[in-house]
Amino acid sequence: MINEDEVIVDLTNAQCWDYLRRQRIGRLAFLADGRIELFPVNYVVDRGELHFLTAGGTKFDAFVRRQDVVFEVDGDLGHLVWSVIVRGIAGVLDPDQKREADARHPIRTYVDTYKPNRVRIEPVLLTGRLLPTPIDRT
Fold it and tell me: Which has the closest alpha carbon to 65: 84, 28, 92?
């Protein structure tokens, strides 16, 4: 049996941001109407925040009121995998902020639907881990 402490490496904040910049899709979890919601979202890193687009509905309604969220992203480096979790507060950008953010870092969604609202996640806690991939022993 391998000791978990010997193979799992905690990432620094700088490493977490580096890995977050490498991906474009993450999973967003938050509480809405008494139940946990989980959505895949396209995102970008912008000035120390994560940004994504949304239409009206569950996500938008929660974020207008500034909502606690958890955002998770994983990646595979071949011999290693990484996972970064961002705990923070999500809020909707006003039209001027959205225009400025769109100019800096446009968000390209994979699903071609109308999403006029840009949401930011202001990180409160950032954690990440680097893990070796399992060795196939068969």
Answer: 92
**pLDDT single digits (tens) 26-83:** 999 999 888 999 999 999 999 999 999 998 887 788 888 888 999 999 999 888 999 9
Tokens 């068969």 identify what position? 138
- Say how far apart CA 104 and CA 125 lie, in whole Å: 24
CATH number at residue 45: 2.30.110.10
Q: How many domains does the chain have?
A: 1
Query: At 135, which amino acid appears?
Result: I
Domain of residue 24: give its range.
11-132
What whole-number distance in Å separates Cα of residue 74 and Cα of residue 129? Answer: 10
The residue behind tokens 């006029």 is 116
